[in-house]
Specification:
There is one protein chain. About 40% of the residues lie in helices and about 5% in strands. By secondary structure, it is mainly alpha-helical. The chain has one domain. It has a two-stranded antiparallel sheet. Helix 4 runs parallel beside helix 8.
């Protein structure tokens, strides 16, 4: 959800602060993993579907890819599992300099064509964008709890379809369970 938000900010499609934007169904929908998994299971047997957390792929790629290759019955020797890359991290994308203002001033100058912040180069990029900061997509504890409440039914569905509970660090809530 945070990654999608930062991607939208970088692309110039989102101007609202995270506290407001993340309550929008546009961000909640992709976080409904139970709904998404159910759609696959309408067409595939559960044994044909492998679910791996993105954190595992990012932090332990060898383990994640080995599990994928094993699931697909593919020889892992076909790929260099030791090569480590992290491309397209949302936090590395530029954001508009005015993104963190409470209200944006009226645009005095119109850019033709209207450039996306993540596609600007040279002086235009330097003047109109800045590096993203962690606080640009920070989610306050109260909002995390609201999101957890809204996503709770889908989370239960996801766990049911998986056949086990998900790890605690995948959960949104900051409250004691």
């Amino acid at each position: 959800m945070q990654s999608m938000y930062m991607h939208q900010v970088s692309a110039g499609r989102e101007r609202r602060r995270a506290e407001v934007a993340l309550l929008d169904d546009r961000y909640l929908g992709p976080s409904r993993y139970g709904f998404q998994l159910a759609a696959f299971l309408d067409h595939f047997d559960r044994s044909q579907v492998l679910v791996i957390g993105s954190e595992v792929l990012r932090d332990r790629p060898h383990e994640a890819l080995s599990a994928v290759f094993n699931h697909l019955a593919v020889d892992p020797a076909a790929v260099d599992l030791e090569r480590r890359r992290q491309d397209h991290r949302s936090i590395d994308k530029p954001v508009p300099r005015l993104h963190d203002l409470e209200s944006l001033p009226r645009r005095q100058v119109k850019l033709h064509p209207r450039w996306r912040p993540d596609q600007r180069t040279g002086l235009a990029r330097l003047v109109t964008t800045r590096r993203a900061r962690v606080e640009d997509s920070a989610i306050p504890h109260e909002l995390r709890d609201r999101l957890a409440e809204r996503l709770a039914p889908d989370l239960r569905r996801f766990e049911y379809l998986l056949g086990h509970e998900i790890p605690g660090h995948w959960r949104w809530s900051t409250s004691a369970a």
